[in-house]
Amino acid sequence: MKKWLVIPILLITLTGCWDRDEIEEEAFVVAIGLDESESGNGLLITYQIANPQAGIPNTGGRKEKSSIITTFNAPNFLTARDLANAYIARKINFSHAKTIVMSEALAKKKEGYKYLTAGLRDSGIRRDIKLIVSREKASEFIHNNNPMLETRPHKFFDLIAGRWKETGLVPFSNMMKFIQKFEKKEDGFLAIYASTNEYKENKEGNEDDYLPGQINRQGGANPAELIGSAVFKNGLMVGTLTGEETRFAMILRQRSETKYMGSTFPDPVNPEYRVAAKLNKHLATNVKMHTKKDPLVIDVHIPLSLEVHGIPSGVNYVTNKEKQELLRNAIKTDLEEKFHSLIKKSQEEYGVNLFNWSHVARRNFLNLPEYKAFNLSKKYPKAKVNVNVEVIFTGFGIKLNPHNYQDAKRQGEF
Amino acid sequence: MGFRFFNRQRTETGFKENDNNMLLSKQLDANTRELTELFEQPLNDDFVNRAVNIKTLDKKARIFFINELVDPKVIEEFILSPLTSKQTDPQKEMKSTLKELLPIKEFKVATELSDCVKGINNGNTLLLIEGSEQGFLLDTTKLEHRNIDKPQSEVVIKGANEGFVESVSVNKSLIRKQLRYEKLVTEKVQLKTRANNTVSLMYVSDLVNEGVVEDVKSRLDRIEVDNIENIALLEQHLEERPYSLVPSILYTERPDRAVSYMLEGHVVLLTENSPACLVVPVTFWSFFHTAEDSYQRWAYANFIRFVRMFAFFIAIVTPSLYVAITNYHIEMLPTDLALAIAAKRETIPFPAIIEVLIMEASFELLREAGVRVPSPIGPTIGIVGALILGQAAVEANIVSPIMVIIIAITGLASFAIPDNSLGFMARIIRFGVLFLAAILGLFGIAIGIILGLAYLVSIRSFGVPFLSPAAPSNKSSGDLLVRRTIRNQWFRPKNIKPQDVKRKGGG
User: The domain containing residue A176 runs over which residues?
Assistant: First the structure.
């Protein structure tokens, strides 16, 4: 026997395929729901498990349900998988879990973050798993969530959580960010806020001033609404933001990846109407913190570019420079007011900044002890924040003049 | 140098034993007797021995040749007829008289019997004259060979379509046609084989690395076998690592490639009966490139290089990636794909690795059968293969549809590897990597690739590191994975150690 053969033989026999699992022997959990336990012990856990056969031709699974949902009581949502395996034949696999849904009730308690952070120790769970806070019980949310367009359950979560990028109506919220903010303590964390129930306080807001369950709608095939955000301070949920407030919070962050958000503003000439525009933050928000001043002074400069594409009042903002200036100032004042009120809310109601401003503050200090001594969390609620919005118009759509409704009426178009 | 051919004491090969370093005798009869005996005259029908009278010298003479190796016309017109009828002034030396008499292009004098035998075996006509101790070998060789044809495996869309044929002289003329340069040298090396094989070394004498020429010669000198029929056999005698999966000598059918290598300082080897030549030393890149890479314009050439690089990678790792990812790293798959694979695999009775092996085995079968099948039955292979691999196996729930895609794309990619040897290498390594992937997942694939790279870096071809000029880094024309524009390829690859690194005009 040749000596060199010993090494490869040892390598092969001493290692092994212990972690090997055939893909068809796994049950893919796509959503995990966390609720307070009714017995007060541990958690009430909901698994939504995808049925791979659903919707695939030639496997006999065409008419099968796309997922099964099971709810049970267990001390921890990871160890719970063994319990679930008592009645699910396949090995429970978290590697494709897209979403953790946490009920608002649990999020407001210490147990919430305790169980959530415990889950991070498991290597089988994705760090980018999305965090959703539901107004009702998480199990209820998962049961009621029934998207018609998406055959498979994970697709809905994948897609809708990705919409934050375009609309900004929900924040970008995943486990990883939650843990970061939780450990940092100086910044608040925004989680996606959702509901499948209708709430009585229905209101007629503008396009984004809603909390989930408030949108006055008919149909839409799915009772689940994801809009607004749940505010976390030190891992505990302390309040909520509406869709509009969430958008502004995203803009106030230095770097926000939200692309275009459609928004309307009161028409300065004809207040009956609202001007529709696409909002884009073309440069990073410039935040300066004067940490030496007392109280703390924060200057925020927000460059926004607007593409106006709806002027229902028919006012000529396109070619008339004066009117354009009027519109610019109106939008600027409107936005600044809203930013101010959001900042005020964060200072007075939550006592924590929601805009990742601790990054800005850190730059003013040479080392960590100095920064710690400064204590941003204490100073922020009393800080004086100056917001300056710079509005530029990048375009007015593809039509030069607003439609002349008077002419149209005469010609019998209306 | 004696000819061991005659000294070897081995009878089983059918060569006649003879301890002869004998000189020719003055007597024609004695020589004739000796030769007829050597060539098994009464038995051997092809051996011709004919008496002539030389008119000018008024002497008896005899010519000897092997019928099938000579051009009868030449013998008639330029030997027999001048000898018997032409009259010139006899000169002092027999040689010069004959030279004047016989309008033959090559004319050699032999004094040893063994030289005469060798000459006759190579298609020369031996002229022996009464009273002379010298034999005259007249070049009358005419060997039958195929006409010049397209290269079989190195096909190009743009570029010359002449390929080597089974004749050294034709092959040399194909090379010289492309490179008309006085420093292009052909060196004939006699092998120590029983059958007197010769190998022609061609190189450009003011570019070549002389160390390589010496190395090749010494390796040729060490070969001791009965016969080397063609260059594919010579390749195996020359290479350093006969057990290695990695080829270290380039086998090419294209004269233009041979020329381009010679211009970079490589040595080209040619033998009789081979529609190809060998190029030494070579690097990995030589196997990876095709002739067309230089002929196509810069962007197109690099595009096909990228495709080929991709193909090389795919051919080696695709099945392993499938096994590793579906068995160990399910989180890497997009959820939809994971669910789709899971759904399709649910009814398959085998684990993924067995599934892969089944399909790989049937594909390799199909491939081998496709090469061996007689052409009238050829279409059957296509039908059977398409049915078995494509449809029936899936419908019978033996393999999943995604597996068919994987094997098909792997097979396709392996056909895109330009060199036959490199293709074999990829095909075999694939199974090694697959095995590693099955027991260790992506980690195993990484180990496999690292080991493979380490091996490639460690080996040499005729003293040249196999991955140079990339690793170790040398000055070169930048013609590796991608190539520069032709105008910017200023340098010869320095790893070959050519005498002149810079490419320029004027020789």
Answer: 22-244
Strand partners, A91: A26
Closest CB to B341: pick one of A19, A23, A158. Answer: A23
The tokens 């490869």 sit on which residue?
Answer: A8
Q: Structurally, how many domains does chain A consist of?
A: 2
* Alpha-carbon Rg for chain B in angstroms: 30
CB B177 within 8 A of CB B266: no
Same domain, residue pair A348 and A331: yes
Residue corresponding to tokens 């170790």? B472
A314 or B481, which is more confident?
B481
Strand ranges, E, within B67-146: 107-110, 124-129, 135-139
Residue A204 touches chain B, beta carbons under 8 Å: no
Examine the domain organization and report whether A99 and A129 are in the same domain.
yes
CB contact under 8 A, B343 and A59: yes
Looking up tokens 């097979």, which residue turns up? Answer: B411
Q: Are strands A384-395 and A297-310 parallel, antiparallel or unpaired?
A: parallel
DSSP letter at B387 equals: I
Non-local (6+) Cβ contacts of A1 within 8 A are none
Question: Would you state the pLDDT for residue B186?
Answer: 94
The predicted structure's pLDDT at residue B34: 86
Residue A205 lies in a domain: yes
What's at B347, amino acid-wise?
Answer: T
pLDDT of residue B507: 40
Residue A124 lies in a domain: yes
Q: Which residues of A touch B352 (CB under 8 A)?
A: 22-23
Write the pLDDT tens digit of every residue in B403-415: 989 999 999 999 9
Domain end marker among A226, A244, A262: A244
Find the closest chain A residue to B394 by CA distance.
Answer: A58
pTM to 2 decimal places = 0.83
User: A377 touching B, CB under 8 A?
Assistant: no
- Choose among B339, B438, B439: nearest Cβ to A152: B339
Write down which residue in A244, A278, A308 finishes a domain.
Answer: A244
Contact A50 B441 (CB under 8 A): no
In a shared domain, residues A281 and A370 = yes
Three-state DSSP class for B294? helix
Asked if residue A221 belongs to a domain, the reply is yes
CA distances from B397 to A59, A363, B360, B438 (A): 11, 63, 16, 22
Instruction: Determine, yes or no, domain membership for A13.
Output: no
Provide the CA B487 distance to its chain's centre, in angstroms: 30
Residue with tokens 């790989």: B360
Establish if B87 touches chain A: CB-CB under 8 angstroms: no
Give the burial string for A153-172 (b: 16+ CB within 10 Å, else e).
bbbbbbebbeebeebbbbbb
User: Which CATH number goes with the domain that contains A401?
Assistant: 3.30.300.210
The overall average pLDDT reported for chain A is 84
Do residues A196 and A162 share a domain?
yes
Listed range (A56-60, A143-147, B365-369, B454-458) with the worst mean pLDDT: A56-60
Residue A67's DSSP bridge partners are A50
Whether A152 and A290 share a structural domain: no
Per the listing, tokens 């009966």 go with B273
Question: ipTM for the complex?
Answer: 0.84
| 3-state SS assignment for residue B76 | helix
Q: Which residues, at least 6 apart from A162, have a Cβ–Cβ distance to it below 8 Å?
A: none
Note whether A182 and A105 are same-domain residues.
Answer: yes
Q: Is the pLDDT of residue A275 over 70?
A: yes
The rounded distance, in Å, linking the Cα atoms of B317 and B453 is: 14
Do A50 and A119 share a domain, yes or no?
A: yes
Same domain, A86 and A39: yes
A53 has a chain B CB within 8 A of its CB: yes
ω into A57 cis (within 30 of 0) = no
The 3-class secondary structure across A223-246, one letter per residue, is CCEEEEEEEEECCEEEEEECHHHH
Most distant CA atoms of chain A, gap in Å: 103
DSSP-derived 3-state class of residue B60 = strand
